[in-house]
Design goal:
alpha+beta; Arc Repressor Mutant, subunit A; Small-conductance mechanosensitive channel; 3 helices; WH-like_DNA-bd_sf
């Protein structure tokens, strides 16, 4: 299991069933250059979304995941970490 997925599952554990901003994980892990890791986070989120492990929440529910790079969204985990 990679470190980013481990951190995401830990954030799920801490937030229980609440939605949170996934980039917060990066901001904790890499405070000065967190935005450099957004492509890896997006890949992980896409994988987890396809597996049904996370749920997305955005202001516009019609937006597809591929369009979310320009929008703010939150996630929550479906499974118990």
């Amino acid at each position: 299991m990679d470190i980013l997925k481990t951190a995401l599952l830990e954030m799920c554990r801490k937030n229980k069933k609440a939605f949170f901003y996934p980039e917060d994980i990066l901001k904790i892990m890499f405070p000065e250059d967190w935005d450099q890791f957004l492509p890896e986070l997006k890949s992980l989120l896409e994988e987890l979304l396809q597996e049904g492990e996370i749920v997305l929440k955005s202001k516009d529910p019609k937006i597809q995941f591929s369009e979310l790079s320009n929008y703010s969204f939150k996630i929550k985990c479906n499974t118990k970490p």
